[in-house]
Amino acid sequence: MSMNRRALARQAAGAKSAAATAPPQDNSGVENVTRKLEAQLAAGDFYGALQMYKTLFMRFLKGEPDAAQQEKAIELALEASLCLVKHEQNTAATEMANLMVSVYSDFHFGVDETTKDRIRKINAAFVEKPQFSADLAVFLKNAVKWSSVEGSRKRGDPELQLLLARAYRKAGDFTHAAKHYLHAENPSEFADALFEWSTHGYQSEYDLYLARVVLQLLSLENLRDANTLRDAYVAKCKDAKRPVDLPLFNFVRFLLLTLERDALSLFQVLQERYAAALSRDASLKSYLSVIGQKFYGLQPPRNGLSSLLEMFSGGM
């Protein structure tokens, strides 16, 4: 789904009938479209309402809009998205939400409480309609991309990453949810999600779920969240009467202790001692290569790390 308002403008300009039906370029024209919009909403003509919303949206942004016009377009898109999702018009609601973010991107709005609060409102409206979680994820992914460009966090705003992870989780997309939980700075919730996902796998792989995520967090140099997630996940396993005295559980515990200090030799010995357990998943070796580089300045291998680039970019 396109979120580019300029593409929308080109599409509108290419429609020959648009010139004949478009309202005049003044306040009375806007009021006329607004009246038609209200009538269409009252009649349940949501397709017609969407077209009117987009007409008004583009009218506010025609030419070189000033700050006031940009704000009007943003507020209209917000209002439209909230209204449409309330009426379970998920595709149309997502389109208008994406147009709101396109204004943020095109006019370089910063990541602050005002801009994020509008995103929170749309998120809250969609959360009440869990059947539309996949649509919500489309919108939030665009919001995260915007925040990575205009904000101070190159992998995207952690709060928006968390909202996106939750949307994917609700949609049952565990793989994408995990990519965004990595950057959400909420390891306790990540551990809860990880435990839930592990119930869908083989009992023999409960320890692999933990090892993969802890090593991913460590590859991002997030030792704090790796420790918190490990403790929370192990506690949940104990509560569920799962065995925790397993090689990878032990490896993760010793690795976290080792990385707290300058102990390169112990880091290398650990990998040798647990080589058999680590060989169960080839990705673990790649993560450990990155960890060795980040924590101990080891030279990275000449290949094998390109698959990790998406993780480092914020899952986008």
Question: What report would you give on this structure?
Answer:
The chain is an all-alpha fold and 316 residues long. The protein has 2 domains: 37-165, Serine Threonine Protein Phosphatase 5, Tetratricopeptide repeat (Alpha Horseshoe), CATH 1.25.40.10; 186-301, Tetratricopeptide repeat domain (Serine Threonine Protein Phosphatase 5, Tetratricopeptide repeat, Alpha Horseshoe). The protein contains 18 helices and no strands. It has helices at 5-14, 16-21, 27-43, 46-60, 67-86, 90-106, 113-127, 133-150, 158-170, 174-181, 187-198, 206-219, 223-239, 247-258, 264-273, 275-278, 282-296, 309-312. Helix 4 runs antiparallel to helix 5 (67-86), helix 6 runs parallel beside helix 8 and helix 14 (247-258) packs antiparallel against helix 15. Keywords: Cytoplasm, Transport. InterPro entries: GET4, TPR-like_helical_dom_sf. It is found in: Cytoplasm, Cytosol. This is Golgi to ER traffic protein 4. It comes from Globisporangium ultimum (strain ATCC 200006 / CBS 805.95 / DAOM BR144) (Pythium ultimum).
